[in-house]
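Blinded run. Sample ID left blank on purpose so nobody reads anything into the name before looking at the predicted structure. Input follows.
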Amino acid sequence: MQKSDFNYLLPEHLIAQKPLADRVASRLLCMSKSTGVLTDQNFVDFVDLLNENDLLILNDTKVIPARLFGKKQTGGKVELLIERVIDAEYAVAHIRASKSPKANSLIMLDNGFVCEVIGRDYDLFKLRFKGPQSVLEILGQVGHIPLPPYITRADDADDFTRYQTVFAKQPGAVAAPTAGLHFDQATINKIAQKGVSKAFVTLHVGSGTFQPVRVDDLSEHIMHKEFYAVTQSTVDAIQRAKAKGGRVIAIGTTAVRALESASRSGQLEAGLGDTDLFITPGYRFKTVDAMLTNFHLPESTLLMLISAFSKYEHVMQAYQHAIKQQYRFFSYGDAMFLFD
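Blinded prediction complete.
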């Protein structure tokens, strides 16, 4: 398929710039994977759509305040977006400046923190953060929440809690697993009371999730890499759910990529590492039965993934329906449930 097959026109006012006051107040577009039948509902109805033996798979990654502002030794302004924290001292980042900094140059950050540019690997810079505090500690003091590029305002105090799931645990993401943003603790408790289990995977969402596909032929696209981990306890929970006839319901495309990356051998296996799995129509899903997701950018790898999960024609028709019904799109927007 071609990149242009996944294009659609979205009125700008439908791009959610802020979260709703209540996490669970979003709308929910439900779609049958096989028939494409659509039902307009609300996210508070999600619990009623679950069955007793179902298993929810949640991504417990935690968004780090990965955006930093500083100055070069020459005084030029610099904006850094940490892509990955390597260890307590080193990280790799995108750098925006009038002129790219050279190796061994210093960048002065707020609160007197300093990082050194060690070198460059394609479009990423390797940085060494100087001082007794770790990279994550420095980010916690002077970092900003890395809101997606389609949110045109600066981050504020609310984003530190709202651009984060209530079950976030493992720091490392620079973008939120947005389907999980709809859950509050009360909803999670209701799901448990219904007899629906939950298990966790980790996939540290990178900024590459927002990068456009630059080639027309999808077979030529090089997918960005993201760290994922699937534990044996999650594998065991999935096997128990399937044995009881329950569905494995991935909360978000990131949970889907983690599970399907761990299933590349043909069966689900515990493991961790970097995944560059690119899911497009024609892919045969090995583990995931249903998916909760947000609405995704035109021509994005995420839209291609959900078009593989259902039928392409059904997904594109659902997006036109969502636009007509004035659903809110992207990270702080409404949700979609794909199931049978």
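Unblinding after everyone has recorded impressions. The mean pLDDT is 96.
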